[in-house]
Amino acid sequence: MWRVAGVIAASGALMLSGCANNSDSGTSGTATTAATAEKVDSIANTVPDPIKSSGKLIVGTDPTYAPNEFKDPNGKIIGFDVDLMNAIAATLGLTPEYRPSAFDKIIPSVQGGSYNVGMSSFTDSKEREQQVDFVTYFQAGSAWAQKVGAGINPDDACGKRVAVQTATVQDTNEMPARNAKCAKEGKPAIAVLKFDDQSAATNAVLLGQADAMSADSPVTAYAIKQSDGKLEQVGEIFDSAPYGWVVPKGSPLAQSLQKALEHLIQTGAYKQVAANWGAEKGLIDKPVINGATS
Fold it and tell me: What pLDDT does 14 receive?
């Protein structure tokens, strides 16, 4: 994980709610949206016995990616993903317990049994499906933001400074592909500035330390909204792909999560949670297990 973020955060130029320290112990979700969902016995009975008997759903998350998962000023983990998982857990008759983690530690921790579910805006990819299973719940692309009027072109950004969050698809897939294109054209590489959390990447653009940022489309939209007119989207949304909840390979919990989401889609609770966070554009009609497109 990159540690440049501390320098930027110290300036205090932009206090985004996602900047909160994520070193807290686990936070139990008392569920801001649990009222929109109730236990459905036929679905709850599909939950694996060890989880069912515990009454808890242990969820690993990196709460630095507003508006999907981040901390409010009091340190409580909130966001679109959190509200949706609260409703999923209620449907399953479970209490969600959110455990903060570095993003790149979540999948190994799910594999090792420390978490029942990984929930951190994970893009479902063929590569990741070799390690774990995914239950899709949303569709997102990537989008760039710049300071208003900066004139950055994502398709011709060679030599520019672009901020991303560590281990995201923008870091591991997009930037290497763009830099390969720069090299092929004999142009200078994009200077990829990598940060521990998305709020620090956004701050880098606002402070002029980066020319642009690339993030998942709902995250970029939220950063723009929170910037008080200082940021704007540049270019179109691209590389649309599904988000998925992470479970151990072959776990029957995948079917439980899938059935719970299908139920919330039918009742309208899924749409309401998305509307509360301005995330309607990424809604899906049918969740699947391992729905990666690339």
Answer: 33
- Within-domain flag for 27: yes
Burial class (CB in 10 A: 0-12, 13-18, 19+), 53: exposed
In the sheet that holds 77-78, the strands lie side by side as 64-65, 69-71, 77-78
Please write down the long-range contacts of 153-157, taking CB distance under 8 Å and 24 or more positions apart: 153/234, 153/235, 154/212, 154/214, 154/234, 154/235, 155/235, 157/190, 157/211, 157/212
Asked whether residue 153 falls in the same domain as residue 43, the answer is no
In the chain, the largest separation of any two C-alpha atoms, in whole Å, equals 61
* pLDDT of 182 higher than 70: yes
195/5 Cα distance (integer angstroms): 6
Q: Are residues 111 and 126 in the same domain?
A: yes
74 and 149 together in one domain: no
Question: Measured in Å, how far apart are the chain's first and last C-alpha atoms?
Answer: 25
Sequence length of the chain is 294
Q: Are 260 and 92 in contact (CB under 8 A)?
A: yes
Question: For residue 163, which of 212, 92, 107 has the smallest C-alpha distance?
Answer: 212
Q: What is the dihedral of CA 3, 4, 6, 9, to 10 degrees?
A: -140
* Cα 212 to Cα 215: distance, rounded to the nearest angstrom: 10
Residues 258 and 187 in one domain: no
Please give the residue range of the domain that contains residue 116: 17-140+241-282
The CATH number of the domain where 205 resides is what? 3.40.190.10
How many domains, in total, are found in the chain? Answer: 2
Query: pLDDT confidence of 294, banded at 50, 70, 90?
Result: confident
On whether the CB atoms of residues 19 and 197 are closer than 8 A, the answer is yes
Render pLDDT for 37-84 as a digit per residue (tens, 0 to 9). Answer: 999 999 999 999 999 999 999 999 999 999 999 999 999 999 999 999
Would you say residue 288 has pLDDT above 50? yes
